[in-house]
Amino acid sequence: MAEVVTQLPVPSRLGMMRFERMNEANWLLLFIDASCEKQFGIPPSGLCNLVETPYASLMEPEARYRLHDSIQQQLAENSHYLVRYTLHTPQGALKLMELGEPFKQRGRALLRGYLLVTSDEPASSMQPSAALEDLQRSQAELLQHQSRALAQQQLIVRLASQRYQGTDPCREAAELITRSACEIYSLARAGIWHINGDPLEPVALYVQEQGHHEMPSPIDGRRYPGYLRALKEGRALDAHDAENDPRTCELFDDYLRPKAVTAMLDASIRVGGELVAVLLGLLVPGLLGYCVVRGVGRRAVFAIATVLVGVAVTALSSALSYGPSHAWEWLNLPTRIGIWAALAAALALVALPRRACAALLLLALALHLNLLNQAPTSAYFAQTLQAWEQGRFIRFFGLGQWLGWLWPYAALAYVVLRVSSRDREAPPAASGTAPGAVQGPS
User: Fold this and answer.
1) 16-22/29-32 β-pairing
2) Measured between alpha carbons, how far is 89 from 131 in angstroms, rounded to an integer?
3) Which of 72, 89, 229, 349 could staple 40 via S-S, CB 3.0–4.6 A?
């Protein structure tokens, strides 16, 4: 007797909402099913916001970090995780079950899975005073997050516009960052370390209780391979329980216990990526032009014009976005080195054959796209989005965004066709006389 197996139902018909989010404690949603508007009372655009973290503001503050640590511990042992928590929505306090798995995309650690509302009648079961307290706590956390985000963006603008007087501007900026971090986020201590191979060399360390900076001794990273591996694999390392977290437990005897540190938040900053990105960003259009332009002189003029136009357009964009006084704030030392290096490389390649230019362009464009996809969101861009009026520049920004998304792949397709096609140029004549030319009397 044969058994008939019917097709499984679609998860959305069972009330399950598919989601994708960052594997971070801020619960930053990148995607969620449209059915969330019916179940939460909030549309997907209201939950998937890259400037703020509206989904995290609906959760209980302490539970958010505790759940994130629980997720990391589950993923260290299994390929999936399961957590339950309460979400305070316009529909009331809903109990949710989150089931997901980790994955990586463009070098970022992400989570994806399903959300399921396990109880949709919290309003009648909760006491009015408890519901009011939960709502007030969620609103207070949202206001605190907004004030901290604004302070952080103002700090970045201040760092870009400040004129440093000392001989070590890097250290001055690091001291300003660490002190401001302790004040904004109410931290006990904040430091910046330079990973120079295996050792971790201190740049600046501010202790809030003592109110001054310290210069600790370097740390031998070879004694903590798991910690360094976690820093290199992820963009941020947040350990709410640093003693038991598998990524930071190696530091307990030498650092956590002597310094009385119970929680850590470490973020890795890749130095040198900006210089390479600027170099490739100017070299790519130059090589693309070399695939069409012939002649060493014409290519040299084209390379110089490309660099000048790129610098002028960037300055104009900064002036329109952040004000005329900030038109040249982006022109820091790595950017200047990248511009001159791109110009030197473009002039050195003016005699390269067109097919060789296309092949080199293919490699440069692939590397440039990889760098851009791994780069974090600009704080200047986030502040500009908040400052723009509703509907202002919407069509211009949308057109520019689509062009920014599509042109690298269009260039890739053109270059692939250019490299794979046969060279149709006629070979030079064997003798010194060109074909069809009339040779005069000697």
Assistant:
1) antiparallel
2) 11
3) 89
Chain centroid to CA 130: 38
Give the side-chain half-sphere CA count within 13 A for 416.
Answer: 7
Pick from 233, 218, 226: nearest CA to 252? 226
More confident residue, 52 or 344: 344
Same domain, 115 and 225: no
Cβ pair 21, 110 in contact under 8 A:
yes
Asked if residue 326 lies in contact with residue 318, where contact means CB atoms within 8 angstroms, the answer is yes
- pLDDT greater than 60 at residue 214: yes
Number of domains in the chain: 3
Please check whether residue 435 lies inside any domain of the structure.
Answer: no
Would the pLDDT of 435 be above 60? no
- Judge if 285 and 414 occupy the same domain: yes
- Give me the DSSP letters along 241-255: STTT-TTTGGGIIII
> Which sign, positive or negative, has the C-alpha torsion 386, 391, 392, 393?
positive
Q: What is the pLDDT of residue 58?
A: 84
Residues of the domain holding 329: 273-420
- Residue 181 within a domain: yes
Q: Is 90 exceeded by the pLDDT of residue 263?
A: no
Residues 130 and 58 in one domain: yes
pTM: 0.45
pLDDT in tens, 375-412: 655 545 555 554 444 444 444 444 555 666 677 788 87
Task: Report whether 285 contacts 306 (CB < 8 A).
Answer: yes
pLDDT tens track for 233-251: 766 777 888 888 888 888 8
245 and 369 co-located in one domain: no
Residue at 296: amino acid letter: V
307 vs 311: CA distance, rounded Å: 6
| Average of per-residue pLDDT values in the chain | 77
Of the three residues 218, 245, 267, the one that is the final residue of a domain is 267
Claim to verify: residue 289 and residue 411 sit in the same structural domain: yes
Sort 290 into a burial class: Cβ within 10 Å, 0-12 / 13-18 / 19+.
buried
Q: What letter does residue 10 receive in the DSSP assignment?
A: P
Q: What is the CATH number of the domain that holds 80?
A: 3.30.450.20
- d(CA 32, CA 18) in angstroms, rounded, equals 6
In this prediction, residue 19 carries a pLDDT of 92
Residue 433 covered by a domain: no
Tell me whether residue 441 is in a domain: no
Radius of gyration (Cα) for the chain, nearest Å? 28
Share of the chain above pLDDT 70, in %: 75
Residues in the chain: 442
